[in-house]
Amino acid sequence: GGDHTITYPILQAVAEKHGPVGLVHVDAHTDTGDRALGEKIYHGTPFRRCVEEGLLDCSRVVQIGIRGSSYDPDPYKYCQDQGFRVVPAEDCWRKSLVPLMGEVRKQMGDKPVYISFDIDGLDPAYAPGTGTPEIAGLTPAQALEIIRGCKGLNIVGCDLVEVAPMYDVSGNTALLGANLLFEMLCVLPGVKTM
Question: CA 17 to CA 85: how far, in whole Å?
Protein backbone atom coordinates (compact mmCIF):
# COMPACT_ATOMS: atom_id res chain seq x y z
CA GLY A 1 0.00 0.00 0.00
CA GLY A 2 0.93 3.66 -0.07
CA ASP A 3 1.83 5.52 -3.23
CA HIS A 4 5.26 5.34 -4.82
CA THR A 5 6.42 8.44 -2.97
CA ILE A 6 7.18 6.19 0.03
CA THR A 7 10.11 4.61 -1.80
CA TYR A 8 12.06 7.88 -1.76
CA PRO A 9 12.58 8.15 2.04
CA ILE A 10 13.05 4.39 2.28
CA LEU A 11 15.90 4.58 -0.24
CA GLN A 12 17.38 7.53 1.66
CA ALA A 13 17.59 5.31 4.75
CA VAL A 14 18.82 2.28 2.79
CA ALA A 15 21.56 4.31 1.06
CA GLU A 16 22.64 5.76 4.39
CA LYS A 17 23.50 2.22 5.48
CA HIS A 18 24.54 0.57 2.18
CA GLY A 19 25.50 3.42 -0.13
CA PRO A 20 23.94 3.65 -3.61
CA VAL A 21 21.93 0.52 -4.38
CA GLY A 22 20.79 -1.33 -7.46
CA LEU A 23 17.07 -1.27 -8.18
CA VAL A 24 14.65 -3.76 -9.69
CA HIS A 25 11.65 -1.54 -10.44
CA VAL A 26 8.41 -3.01 -11.81
CA ASP A 27 5.91 -0.37 -12.91
CA ALA A 28 3.79 0.96 -15.74
CA HIS A 29 5.61 4.30 -15.36
CA THR A 30 9.25 5.28 -14.91
CA ASP A 31 8.42 7.61 -11.99
CA THR A 32 11.24 9.92 -13.01
CA GLY A 33 9.18 13.04 -13.68
CA ASP A 34 10.50 16.34 -12.40
CA ARG A 35 7.27 17.98 -11.18
CA ALA A 36 3.51 17.60 -11.08
CA LEU A 37 1.15 20.42 -10.19
CA GLY A 38 4.23 22.37 -9.16
CA GLU A 39 5.41 19.74 -6.67
CA LYS A 40 8.82 18.05 -6.84
CA ILE A 41 7.82 15.18 -4.55
CA TYR A 42 4.89 13.02 -5.64
CA HIS A 43 4.35 9.48 -6.81
CA GLY A 44 5.65 10.18 -10.31
CA THR A 45 9.02 11.65 -9.20
CA PRO A 46 10.69 9.41 -6.58
CA PHE A 47 13.39 7.93 -8.77
CA ARG A 48 14.47 11.29 -10.17
CA ARG A 49 14.88 12.54 -6.60
CA CYS A 50 16.84 9.37 -5.79
CA VAL A 51 19.17 9.96 -8.75
CA GLU A 52 19.69 13.59 -7.71
CA GLU A 53 20.68 12.50 -4.20
CA GLY A 54 22.98 9.69 -5.37
CA LEU A 55 20.87 6.97 -3.73
CA LEU A 56 20.94 4.66 -6.77
CA ASP A 57 23.77 2.88 -8.55
CA CYS A 58 22.36 3.87 -11.93
CA SER A 59 24.31 1.19 -13.80
CA ARG A 60 22.31 -1.35 -11.79
CA VAL A 61 18.79 -0.02 -12.24
CA VAL A 62 16.29 -1.97 -14.33
CA GLN A 63 12.71 -0.87 -14.92
CA ILE A 64 10.32 -3.59 -16.15
CA GLY A 65 6.82 -3.29 -17.59
CA ILE A 66 6.99 0.39 -18.54
CA ARG A 67 4.18 1.56 -20.82
CA GLY A 68 1.25 3.90 -21.08
CA SER A 69 0.74 7.60 -21.18
CA SER A 70 3.46 10.14 -20.58
CA TYR A 71 3.91 13.90 -20.37
CA ASP A 72 7.07 13.62 -22.44
CA PRO A 73 7.42 12.75 -26.14
CA ASP A 74 10.45 10.57 -25.27
CA PRO A 75 9.46 9.08 -21.90
CA TYR A 76 12.50 6.81 -21.54
CA LYS A 77 15.18 9.39 -22.37
CA TYR A 78 15.85 10.58 -18.82
CA CYS A 79 16.18 6.98 -17.60
CA GLN A 80 18.44 5.92 -20.43
CA ASP A 81 20.57 9.05 -19.98
CA GLN A 82 21.13 7.97 -16.36
CA GLY A 83 22.17 4.46 -17.47
CA PHE A 84 18.98 2.66 -16.43
CA ARG A 85 17.87 -0.41 -18.34
CA VAL A 86 14.26 0.15 -19.43
CA VAL A 87 12.24 -2.94 -20.42
CA PRO A 88 8.96 -1.78 -21.97
CA ALA A 89 5.91 -3.97 -21.41
CA GLU A 90 5.71 -4.84 -25.08
CA ASP A 91 9.11 -6.51 -24.79
CA CYS A 92 7.53 -8.81 -22.17
CA TRP A 93 4.32 -9.75 -23.99
CA ARG A 94 3.65 -13.46 -24.60
CA LYS A 95 6.89 -14.74 -23.07
CA SER A 96 8.56 -15.99 -19.95
CA LEU A 97 10.69 -13.43 -18.11
CA VAL A 98 13.08 -16.06 -16.73
CA PRO A 99 15.73 -15.23 -19.39
CA LEU A 100 15.39 -11.50 -18.65
CA MET A 101 15.87 -12.13 -14.95
CA GLY A 102 19.04 -14.11 -15.71
CA GLU A 103 20.40 -10.97 -17.36
CA VAL A 104 19.20 -8.81 -14.46
CA ARG A 105 20.93 -11.08 -11.94
CA LYS A 106 24.23 -10.63 -13.79
CA GLN A 107 23.69 -6.86 -13.93
CA MET A 108 23.00 -6.66 -10.17
CA GLY A 109 25.97 -8.81 -9.14
CA ASP A 110 26.51 -9.24 -5.41
CA LYS A 111 26.05 -5.60 -4.39
CA PRO A 112 22.96 -4.36 -2.49
CA VAL A 113 19.66 -4.35 -4.41
CA TYR A 114 16.25 -2.90 -3.61
CA ILE A 115 13.00 -4.19 -5.20
CA SER A 116 10.21 -1.68 -5.79
CA PHE A 117 7.01 -3.13 -7.24
CA ASP A 118 4.14 -0.88 -8.31
CA ILE A 119 0.97 -2.94 -8.68
CA ASP A 120 0.15 -1.02 -11.88
CA GLY A 121 3.01 -2.88 -13.52
CA LEU A 122 0.40 -5.63 -13.86
CA ASP A 123 -2.38 -5.43 -16.39
CA PRO A 124 -5.57 -3.95 -14.87
CA ALA A 125 -7.40 -7.13 -15.91
CA TYR A 126 -5.59 -8.67 -12.90
CA ALA A 127 -5.06 -5.59 -10.71
CA PRO A 128 -7.61 -2.85 -11.38
CA GLY A 129 -7.34 -1.47 -7.85
CA THR A 130 -4.75 1.21 -8.47
CA GLY A 131 -4.82 4.93 -9.16
CA THR A 132 -3.13 4.95 -12.57
CA PRO A 133 -4.04 1.75 -14.43
CA GLU A 134 -2.52 1.24 -17.87
CA ILE A 135 -3.62 -1.47 -20.31
CA ALA A 136 -1.35 -4.17 -21.77
CA GLY A 137 0.70 -4.87 -18.66
CA LEU A 138 2.39 -7.86 -17.11
CA THR A 139 0.63 -11.02 -15.93
CA PRO A 140 0.74 -12.38 -12.37
CA ALA A 141 2.88 -15.28 -13.62
CA GLN A 142 5.41 -12.81 -15.04
CA ALA A 143 5.38 -10.93 -11.73
CA LEU A 144 6.29 -14.16 -9.96
CA GLU A 145 9.08 -14.81 -12.47
CA ILE A 146 10.52 -11.36 -11.75
CA ILE A 147 10.35 -11.70 -7.97
CA ARG A 148 11.54 -15.31 -7.86
CA GLY A 149 14.26 -14.36 -10.32
CA CYS A 150 15.68 -12.07 -7.62
CA LYS A 151 16.36 -14.98 -5.24
CA GLY A 152 20.04 -15.06 -4.33
CA LEU A 153 20.59 -11.35 -4.92
CA ASN A 154 21.82 -9.18 -2.07
CA ILE A 155 18.36 -7.73 -1.43
CA VAL A 156 18.41 -5.06 1.28
CA GLY A 157 14.76 -4.05 1.07
CA CYS A 158 11.58 -4.14 -0.96
CA ASP A 159 8.18 -2.55 -1.29
CA LEU A 160 4.89 -3.08 -3.06
CA VAL A 161 2.99 0.14 -3.68
CA GLU A 162 -0.06 1.78 -5.24
CA VAL A 163 -2.65 -0.82 -4.18
CA ALA A 164 -5.96 1.02 -3.83
CA PRO A 165 -8.54 -1.61 -2.73
CA MET A 166 -11.49 0.78 -3.00
CA TYR A 167 -11.04 0.75 -6.79
CA ASP A 168 -11.53 -3.04 -6.96
CA VAL A 169 -14.75 -4.42 -5.52
CA SER A 170 -13.58 -7.99 -6.26
CA GLY A 171 -10.66 -7.72 -3.82
CA ASN A 172 -8.33 -9.33 -6.36
CA THR A 173 -5.83 -6.45 -6.41
CA ALA A 174 -5.31 -6.61 -2.65
CA LEU A 175 -5.01 -10.42 -2.81
CA LEU A 176 -2.47 -10.20 -5.62
CA GLY A 177 -0.53 -7.45 -3.83
CA ALA A 178 -0.37 -9.43 -0.59
CA ASN A 179 0.84 -12.53 -2.40
CA LEU A 180 3.51 -10.62 -4.33
CA LEU A 181 4.78 -9.04 -1.13
CA PHE A 182 4.88 -12.50 0.48
CA GLU A 183 6.93 -13.71 -2.50
CA MET A 184 9.34 -10.78 -2.00
CA LEU A 185 9.79 -11.72 1.64
CA CYS A 186 10.58 -15.28 0.54
CA VAL A 187 13.49 -14.14 -1.67
CA LEU A 188 15.19 -12.06 1.01
CA PRO A 189 18.67 -13.31 1.92
CA GLY A 190 18.65 -16.04 4.55
CA VAL A 191 14.98 -16.95 4.11
CA LYS A 192 14.54 -20.71 3.71
CA THR A 193 11.66 -21.89 1.51
CA MET A 194 10.50 -25.34 0.51
Answer: 25
CA distance 79 to 150: 22
- The candidate with the shortest Cα–Cα distance to 188, out of 157, 145, 149, 142, is 157
Q: Cα–Cα distance between 22 and 154 in angstroms, integer? A: 10
Q: Is the full-model pTM beyond 0.90?
A: yes
CA distance 109 to 166: 39
Q: How far apart are CA 124 and CA 111, in angstroms?
A: 33
* DSSP H or E stretch at residue 10: helix 7-18
SS3 122: strand
pLDDT score of 14: 98
Contact 111, 21 (CB under 8 A): yes
